[in-house]
Amino acid sequence: MLFINRQTLKKKSNRLLVMLYVDGLKKGFGSGRRRLEVLKGINLKVEKGELVSLMGPSGCGKSTLLNIIGGLLEGDSGKINLGSFEYGTKSPNKVVDVRRKGVGWIFQDFHLVERLTALDNVIFSLELSGVPTSEAETRARSALERVGLGDRMNFIPDQLSGGQQQRVAVARAISGSRSLILADEPTGNLDVKSAKEIIHLFQDLCREDGISILMVTHDPLQASMADRMLLLKDGLTAASDIRSAWGIEEVN
Ligand SMILES: Nc1ncnc2c1ncn2[C@@H]1O[C@H](COP(=O)(O)OP(=O)(O)O)[C@@H](O)[C@H]1O
Ligand SMILES: [Mg+2]
């Protein structure tokens, strides 16, 4: 009896811990002799509250992988579980809820609406996903406070530094209470100091708020600030020990 209880408990806690499962995911483009197999059977998981970095040579399929996880593109085969969502090969119009409720996005070039204030940028995106205006405003204010922009809410992107603009994008991504944030080279347009601040913010969001983040980066130092590092190469992911490869002792 005791044994059964322990097993049940273990199963339950495992289920709570793993936020994202990707199982045998394959994706290629084109046909015939022009066919390019990009993802050749990706297996990975991201736990709740975990910051995972994804590295790999240019053109190896990092964005393709994120796009499939984010419900913007369908895989050829394989399976993805994100919370209660199950997809992977479903076409993007069948996974609307993954985009609306499952994942938040952060891009290299921020993707903010230039004419809207920081606050309205976040509200706008919440409204698009169906949140009523008054609730959207409360949630947007709290997300902007969370990323340290409480005193910049009424500034438009042009009046903010690159790092601050990316913080608005982070606020937008977390305001929808999404469990997984996908960040595709989020620091690619930032100076070293702002980039480090964004990664520190990611660390806080994971550790304190239990958000999971899968982040693509080219920078080994930034990658090494994640809880775990993955390398995508020749269509497969493997654990990467970039810390020892680069002689990095400890980065915080
Ligand atoms: N829609 C598409 N049609 C054809 N080829 C594509 C498409 N999207 C990506 N690719 C190809 O797939 C490979 C991986 O691209 P991508 O995922 O953008 O790489 P990364 O983000 O790692 O730089 C590249 O060779 C790219 O040209
Ligand atoms: Mg890319």
CATH architecture type: 3-Layer(aba) Sandwich
CATH superfamily: P-loop containing nucleotide triphosphate hydrolases
SS element count, helices: 9
The general outline is globular
The domain count comes to 1
Q: What number is the mean pLDDT?
A: 91
Low-confidence region ranges: 1-15
CATH class category name = Alpha Beta
The name CATH uses for the topology is Rossmann fold
N-end to C-end Cα span: 45 Å
What does this structure look like?
The chain is of the alpha/beta class. The protein has one domain (48-74, 93-245): P-loop containing nucleotide triphosphate hydrolases (Rossmann fold), CATH 3.40.50. Helices cover 38% and strands 25% of the residues. The chain contains nine helices and ten strands. Helix 4 (118-128) packs parallel to helix 6 and helix 5 packs across helix 6. The longest helix is centred in the C-terminal third of the chain and has 18 residues, at 192-209. It is globular, with a radius of gyration of 19 Å. The termini are far apart. Residues 1-15 have low confidence and may be disordered. Magnesium ion is lined by residues 62-63, 184.
